Amino acid sequence: MASKAWPFEEARRLLKRFAKSPPEKGYVLFETGYGPSGLPHIGTFGEVARTTMVRRAFEEISDIPTKMVCFSDDLDGMRKVPSNVPNSESLHEHLQRPLTSVPDPFGTHDSFGHHNNAMLRRFLDTFGFQYDFISATEFYGTGQFDEILLRAVEKYDEVMAVMLKSLREERRQTYSIFLPIHPETGRVLYVPMKSVNKADGTITFDDEDGREWTLPVTGGNVKLQWKPDFGARWAALGVDFEMYGKDHSTNTPIYDGICRILGHKAPEHFSYELFLDENGQKISKTSGNGVSIDKWLTYASSESLSYFMYQKPKTAKRMHFDVIPKAMDEYHQQLRAYVDQDVKAQLNNPVWHIHGGDVPISKMVVPYSMLLNLASVSGAEEKDQLWGFIQRYAPETSAETHPDMDQAAGFAVRYFNDFVKPTKVFRAATDIEREALEDLRARLVAWDGGLDADALQSEVFACGRERFDPMRGWFTALYEVLLGASQGPRFGGFIALYGVDETVALIDRALAGELI
Q1: pLDDT band (50, 70, 90) for residue 81
Q2: Rounded distance, CA 120 to CA 139, Å?
Q3: What is the pLDDT of residues 299-314, one digit of tens each?
């Protein structure tokens, strides 16, 4: 109960909600929302991962049962065609139709909405999240939303009053919380209401051609505008906790107000900062910028992605490929630290929240960043090429006994070839750098201390201590001249892994100008 980890802080705040009595429905409901207007991006995963972390912390401090719902707003009309799908030109004729009525450009599912929902569920299942999935199309169409929709008709003026305060004058003239779905075209219509009938739960409106229609609000004939839908969904499901991005935070009073009008206590919420691409732009489903979940999992473990999501949710993060190696190494550093920590420290450790307290043992005997350097100097195209170096450095390891090491070797080879290799730039050594490298070479030729990384690091240090001030210049030279990179590993550890003789040969090639 005393942990300062942010999931526990949120869990304690949520628990206060039930200080007087437990939830009437018998459980605490966590919700995450998803708009399937484009392929699921990494921010969607982050929302579910972080909500799961709060849920786990809540279960640690409370005996009240919990559930989590992932709600897809797939009845939303397609407002623009995503640029990152095949045959995108074929989708233009389906603009404003519900996403579950738009043909799937990939040709694998009943609709574009069904395709994106399936992708989302596959991603979430990969990480072992426990959740119930709800489709808005099904929720509206099967009558599960009918009670709240009829209440929205009854409370129409009150809900409209909340919305109208937030709208510009010209928008107020035509705005309605209800979006009818045209009986003939199937399009989601943004049209003003001529009347909202509380007696029979119907709305009357003119379509875009001036024809008048009257439809019941029940049975999937209408959907709510997205802001009213947020609050109405909370009321319909009895949501107790939901987190969302900072871009939603200004709408929180609107969501809360509508939820209360429709008869339910507003949930607890948590607003997180947004994910940005390499240019500092917000990640978007429809433009496909930033790192996708599949891309991250091509180069690093799922746990490293969860670790990245845990860190500082109130701080905006760049989601570019260069964050992956750091996340991998820090995740394993935390695993190694966890073993010797007391309970208080363990509950503050990110890996407790990633694994729900069932924390594995790290068998990463070589850091991911070091594997990248090893792939660089060895020209590795396959992970088996790295294993020869790894097993000489740590003879007790194998792919069978150290599966996380084996997995990381494969990730490192792919990452190196796709991102590091194309950007490598070697340079010639300056006179003072050449002198230091020749000194290091001589020391390594005479070396008989085995693969002691710390002792080798002392030799590296000795070569630069009297020649460079600050010493950073010496290590920069090692990286730029020998590895073709602006930064690199603790060099004594690199020599131990790559090999003393191999490092001598690398220095010879660099001094001969063969790497440039």
Answers
A1: confident
A2: 18
A3: 999 999 999 999 999 9
Residues 6+ apart with CB under 8 A from 384: none
Q: Considering the domain boundaries, does residue 419 fall inside one?
A: yes
Interior/surface letters 355-383, b for 16+ CB within 10 angstroms, e for the rest: bbeebeebbbbbbbbbbbbbbbbbebeeb
Task: Provide the β-strand partners of residue 359.
Answer: none
CA distance 198 to 194: 13
For the chain, give the number of residues: 516
Q: Which domain holds residue 300?
A: 293-355
Cis peptide preceding 470, ω within 30 of 0: yes
47 shares a domain with 130: yes
Cα–chain center distance at 342: 29
The answer to whether 31 and 94 have CB atoms below 8 angstroms apart is no
CA nearest to 57, candidates 353, 359, 354, 358:
353
Q: Please give the tally of structural domains in the chain.
A: 5
- Residue 492 has a pLDDT of 95
Residues 99 and 247 reside in one and the same domain: yes
Predicted TM-score (pTM) above 0.90: no
Residue 391 exposed, middle or buried by CB count within 10 Å (0-12, 13-18, 19+): middle
Are 254 and 348 found together in one domain?
A: no
Q: Within this chain, do residues 129 and 150 fall inside the same structural domain, yes or no? A: no
261 and 125 fall within a common domain: yes
Number of Cβ within a 10 Å radius of residue 312: 10
Q: What angle do CA 57, 65, 251 make, to 5 degrees?
A: 65
Is 140 contained in some domain?
no
Is the separation of the CB atoms in 364 and 330 below 8 Å?
no
Q: Are residues 61 and 127 in the same domain?
A: yes
Give yes or no: residues 158 and 237 share one domain: no
- Residue 431's contacts (CB-CB under 8 Å, 6 or more residues apart) are none
